[in-house]
Amino acid sequence: MKNGIKTLLAVAAIGTLALSGCASTMQYGDAGSAKPISTEFGSSDLQQIAESMVDSMISFPPLVELTSSKRPVVSVDKVKNKTMQHIDTESVTDSIRAKLLRSGKFRFIDRTTDAQTIEELKTQQDSGLVDKKSAVQFGQQLGAEFLLTSNFSEIVQKAGSTTDVYYKFTMSLKNLKTGILEWSDEKEIRKVFKRGTFGG
Amino acid sequence: MKQSRKLVLYGMAAAMLLATTGLAGCSTTAGVEATGKTSWNEEGARGLDKKIIFNNSSLAGDIEIVDVKSALVGDVMRVQAALRSKDKDTLPFQYRFDWYDAGGFEINSGAGSWKPLILTGRETKTIQAVAPDPRAKEFKLKIREPDK
């Protein structure tokens, strides 16, 4: 009996020694890492959604044809977040917008900076500081031809020690003049967490 | 009674030892790299110069790059790679694509992210990617084991 405890202690000591190489550390991580930490929405999920949506949109034949001769003006709508989580969905659409812009295929209207734009134009018009010839006039902005809309939903299932979360991000490009959806695609992500017998 | 308690203790010790060995690896090694460079022959037809490098022998035993092809959608390069699992079990991998322009400069350097890929035993799966912009003429596909 005593022997058994001794063996156990020795093994525990060796285990601790071997593990010390992986003890608490602080370091920079890879921003593109695909390591899931939990079933909650994470950085890799955001990157996967953004890249998948942009790849799909850039390679969709009717849009390839449309963007070959001009760069359509697009406005991005807020994401309808139907998940139970608080997610900065603007960050998702920001990533998508940045990638689409950088592809050189689309141009965007940013409604979130309208207040600042109006203030700047007012200053140019009314303050008397700006040369009238170079002051930007009101009412000259381009209207968006397309609206990029998105839905985000999740299905969570829990059974015993297993949590299974399914995410679905759907995005559509709506032609504002005709009301027709020109493109739509979805990205699905499944995350499964199994609680270990000894895990916390 | 005493005997059985002893057995339980030995069992626990063995389990701890196993757990320790399992946890010892804390690093991810570089895996497979497949490069494809756009080329043109004398008739001006578009081709692809391919090169596949295995940096990890255990990964080379698990996965095989069956085929790599590329085409243009509009003026943007699109790539597809067919991967085959050599293992009989389901294995998780990660992959990413990096893109380079005609001069060999990386486009949006470091901006790409790893994507998870799950291959069931002996399964063949294709992965696709579209270049970030029309400048891309060359790509590098990297495959590795998931980071621990």
Quick structural gist:
The complex is a heterodimer of chains A (200) and B (148). In chain A, 36% of the residues lie in helices and 27% in strands. With 200 residues, chain A is of the alpha/beta class.
Question: Could you please describe the fold and organization of this structure?
Answer:
The complex is a heterodimer of chains A (200) and B (148). With 200 residues, chain A is an alpha/beta fold. Chain A has a domain at 39-112 and 139-200: THUMP superfamily (THUMP fold), CATH 3.30.2300. Helices cover 36% and strands 27% of the residues of chain A. Chain A contains five helices and five strands. Chain A has helices at 2-19, 43-59, 61-69, 89-102, 114-126, and strands at residues 73-81, 107-109, 146-159, 162-175, 181-194. A five-stranded mixed sheet of chain A has the order 2-1-3-4-5, with helices on one face. In chain A, a hairpin with a 5-residue loop joins strand 4 and strand 5. The radius of gyration of chain A is 26 Å and the shape is elongated. Chain B has a five-stranded antiparallel sheet with strand order 2-1-8-5-6. In chain B, strands 3-4-7 form a three-stranded antiparallel sheet, with no helix packed on it. Helices cover 18% and strands 48% of the residues of chain B. Mean pLDDT of chain B is 82; it is low at 19-26. In chain B, a hairpin with a 2-residue loop joins strand 3 and strand 4. With 148 residues, chain B is α+β, with helices and mostly antiparallel strands. Chain B has one domain (32-144): Immunoglobulin-like (Sandwich), CATH 2.60.40.3230. The interface between A and B is large, with 37 and 39 residues.
